[in-house]
Write a structure and sequence with these properties.
- 2 copies of one chain form a homodimer.
- By secondary structure, chain A is of the alpha/beta class.
- In chain A, the strands form 4 sheets. In chain A, strands 8-7-10-9-11-12-14-13 form an 8-stranded mixed sheet, sandwiched between helices. The first copy, chain A, has a 6-stranded parallel sheet with strand order 16-17-15-18-19-20, with helices on both faces.
- The two termini of chain A are 55 Å apart.
- Chains A and B meet through α1, β2, α2, α7 and α11 of A and α1, β2, α2, α7 and α11 of B.
């Protein structure tokens, strides 16, 4: 008959490596069948219950309590195992040999290893903020492995790092590779021309492994923590790391990856990257633009595609023409928006989807995102895409592919708006459509373009023509007539939309709100020959294995993790 | 001083071509500056107001009233123009010459042209349902151009067509090309090997134009109406058209396109297409899977990419291996689901996104769609992806990349669930990670696989290994050990997820709920030498131009469109 015993210990802090090793040691004891050694969080108690290891004693354990749960062959064996716990713990203490001098505080460690530019922090989340802020105050960059840190604390830490010209990777940053040295979890890859910035730990690892597998290699790979690209944090670390790699001579191509993020954050990053002068492959999970490229940003759907593309780009650097931004000197300062007047719904949708990668909000009567639904489709708002083939426009009148009257009226209306920079229209040829669209459209285009010019504005009119040479209207005849009227003509929707997207992106001013790391700042980031470790000793050992001079701080939480004592201490301080 | 005059006419139906021509004729009169001739819908009144053409007289016009709005140089010229309206209308009547015999009803037209297999209907939406149902009752296929038809009426019409083995394109179907004959709006393209099915009018046109531009051509292109792929309609027309093209010898590759649709509809279509035996390029706007292909479905992001891919496939038909569905004979009937136990969040997300293209609902503790959020992450539900590196799992314990205990417990738990067919785990190597994962994992894999086998179940265990040969754990050593334990090993996330996706798709039975058109049904659909047209005379003229024997029905709405009279007639009927 098997027997379950539990013991709950309160008020003491244990390193989680110690707990794992304790669990394994108990399991190795005679007569022990299963063991769980865990802090008493709800998730952990669930696990123990699922495994049939939880007794009544532990059901109300607190998150800061340690539960030792043992399933044994008999009550006696269970009791014996529990009695062995302290002995096992003391044996472990005495077997530690890796470091002669063990500073007990960060400041002592810094004094003993003054050249260290980095502090690796992996203490439990609730203690991590104080340690990180202390490291920044001491002028060190921070790799913050700890998770369970609040978003507000993350912002606090990152703003502090920005002020000091330092870099903070994390919180919840699992991995980084700088100058070939792995921080936290890190694969051993070849050194090479590709730099990585990842708001995702295993994303970074999958990327560098894939780059290595493709025969390429990594210059530096920065983790940022999974929340760096949440809109409140604003991508502080990502932008610092991107500008750092853009200025790094060993990096030819950069890959940026992230877990799913808000599209305004994605667009902000695309615009930020367009201020840098290096090709950047972007893989934001779940964000798949219809265009393959915007300026120096190249989009990839998957991690594997991203690494593949980066390698291809790095071996064809000379053939990559950096898109020159469309000149906008002809536009007046008031001109900022595009107005699209479609007769074809699908062409309107495809354009809307393409433009959504170039600009933050595109209003439409067919908006997919209800925040950008135009409630009064007769008046445009900022960037606007109107599908004039929608039912509301065709009640009791011909389809706009046959009858251009409504669109011509709207074209004039938009052309008179001082905020309009570009107007995009589609012209669909073929049987059933207007027998000669350019005969109506071309004079109007000339007219509104000159009218705008006489008022000091340059109006770009883009016409997307869908048709063939054998259509009754003849494609080339229509194109020729529209071009003569001053229109820019395209025959493919995504190309037309990209053309417009590049113009409106150029017309909207972009403010870089992150001071980039430069000169000596870069050098101090890439200096990794000596590093201070606070938290999991595991990571210290891994640094030693990699030939880094590492000092491990023998960190203990304030008041040995006793919550009540900590509260009293905090009150005494304030 | 310019002058605006308006006249409102009630109780008479006008063809919208007539109205457009009337507007143009009035504008050509001396002293007339601008004209709007429109039915009095709200949208149209807005347009007239924007153009400064609306007077108080018309502000309360009803949708079925005709507004004639004129801006003239003087009051007198305005009055003259209004007085000319009836004369212009009567002139138009007398100039019609295109057809000697004009049947006044559909049934008369059918008697005069019994071989016609198609009726083109473009009467106003509120009359369209009755005409369409009449055509179906007469055994004809229907091309329903009319919009402003309710969703319920669309379902009614399509269900009727299914029962009768006929095809209905539309409502709101702008275009189709069958055997080189364009219906509605249609471009003139080369005949060729690519068939098209489009729940989008200009989508279809852009596709066939692009195919033509690439030097290829079109076998048949079917429109379905933009709402055919709304979940309530269930893609009746799309599926009929797809199966028709799959059975058509002239069609080598099919392209299917649609405006944005619900993902469950997309998956249903992917599964439907996988019952056909021809390559199908799918472009659902805004639906961009991470995989490039599922079975015989090839995904394209844009219309242009879709046509490009179709042409490439059609010229390399021999080299396309149709994916053979994964054999599932070893699985027990209860086994249907995958359970993914990840240590890496990004790997979990990428897997989730890939699986979402193969299966309708994948539950997760990191679900992006809140409908599929697992509230109790300790119990899996149907297909489940668990990120065990989430904060909830790492409070007070080591990361699952270091400590496999939780995942091993969960692996056993999932393996004992009779519904589990596949378990996917990641193993991330490198510094900081578990020093030898396979030493813990491999024995567990052997163990749970044999346990399942002894209960008559086959358990597929897939392990995604992320690592390099130079990692401390050595990639090849880990892979070898996992393979020996019976695991299927992959090293790339999207490949691992696709592998799993194909298995679970094969394990979930798919019922085809649409009776496909076969044999004589196909012949009657592709027979387009004679066609009956009801509604816009424009389309009749276009058919004549294309050499089709077309009969135009001189259709008038019941009670000449007088709403009150129509109500009385309807009441007398019932």
């Amino acid at each position: 008959m098997t027997h379950i015993v539990n013991e709950v210990r309160s008020g003491t802090y244990y390193d989680s490596v110690v707990l794992m090793q304790l669990q394994k040691s108990i399991l190795a004891l005679k007569g022990v069948l299963d063991v769980g050694v865990m802090m008493g969080t709800e998730a952990n108690r669930d696990v123990l219950e699922q495994s049939g290891l939880l007794t009544e004693d532990s059901k109300y354990a607190a998150a800061e309590d340690l539960i030792i749960a043992i399933k044994a062959e008999s009550a006696e064996k269970g009791k014996d195992a529990l009695d062995s716990v302290d002995m096992i713990m003391s044996q472990r203490q005495s077997s530690q040999t890796s470091q002669d001098f063990r500073p007990r505080s960060l400041i002592t460690a810094v004094r003993s290893l003054p050249d260290a530019r980095w502090v690796l922090i992996s203490v439990p989340g609730r203690y991590a903020v104080d340690v990180a802020l202390e490291a920044l105050d001491l002028g060190k960059n921070v790799f913050l492995y700890s998770d369970n840190v609040s978003l507000d604390d993350e912002i606090l830490i990152k703003k502090s790092s920005l002020e000091k010209g330092l870099l903070v990777m994390g919180p919840d940053c699992g991995t980084a590779v700088i100058n070939g040295v792995g921080f936290g979890f890190a694969n051993v890859t070849k050194i090479g021309p590709v730099g990585v910035v990842a708001a995702s730990g295993t994303g970074l690892q999958a990327l560098i492994v894939s780059l290595d597998g493709l025969g390429s290699g990594v210059s530096h790979a920065f983790g940022t923590g999974g929340r760096d690209l949440k809109d409140k944090v604003g991508g502080i670390t990502s932008k610092q790391a991107l500008s750092l790699l853009a200025g790094d001579n060993d990096t030819q191509v950069i890959v940026l990856t992230s877990k799913p993020l808000a599209s305004e954050v994605a667009i902000d990053l695309i615009r930020f990257i367009n201020t840098l002068n290096k090709p950047v492959v972007v893989n934001f999970l779940g964000f798949v633009p219809l265009v393959t490229r915007i300026g120096n940003v190249f989009f990839a759907k998957t991690l594997h595609e991203a690494s593949d593309l980066a390698v291809k780009l790095s071996s064809n650097l000379d053939s990559i023409t950096m898109n020159t931004p469309v000149s906008n000197k002809e536009f007046a300062p008031s001109q900022r928006y595009v107005r699209c007047l479609f007769s074809g719904g699908t062409l309107a949708y495809e354009t809307l989807l393409v433009l959504n990668t170039f600009a933050e909000g595109v209003y439409s009567n067919i908006a997919i995102n209800s925040d950008y639904k135009l409630h009064d489709a007769s008046v445009s708002k900022e960037h606007t895409v109107i599908d004039m083939g929608e039912d509301e426009y065709t009640l009791g009148r011909l389809h706009p592919m046959m009858d251009y009257d409504l669109r011509l009226r709207r074209l004039r209306q938009e052309s008179e708006d001082e905020e309009t920079a570009v107007i995009l229209l589609d012209v669909v040829l073929g049987h059933g459509s207007h027998p000669n669209p350019s005969a109506e459209l071309a004079p109007m285009i000339s007219d509104v373009k000159s009218a705008a010019l006489s008022e000091g504005r340059y109006l770009e009119i883009v016409v997307l023509v869908i048709g063939t040479e054998n259509d009754p209207q003849e494609l080339s005849v229509q194109i020729e007539s529209l071009r003569r009227a001053g229109a820019h003509v395209e025959t493919c929707t995504d190309k037309a939309a990209s053309y417009v997207g590049n113009i409106i992106m150029g017309l909207s001013p972009y403010l870089i709100n992150i001071k980039s790391l430069e000169g000596s700042d870069i050098d101090q980031v890439t200096q990794v020959s000596s590093i201070i470790n606070v938290g999991l000793e595991y990571f210290h050992e891994s640094l030693i294995q990699q030939g880094v001079q590492s000092t491990h701080v023998d960190w203990q939480p304030p008041a040995q993790g006793n919550e009540k004592l900590m509260d009293i201490l905090a009150k005494m301080k304030s």
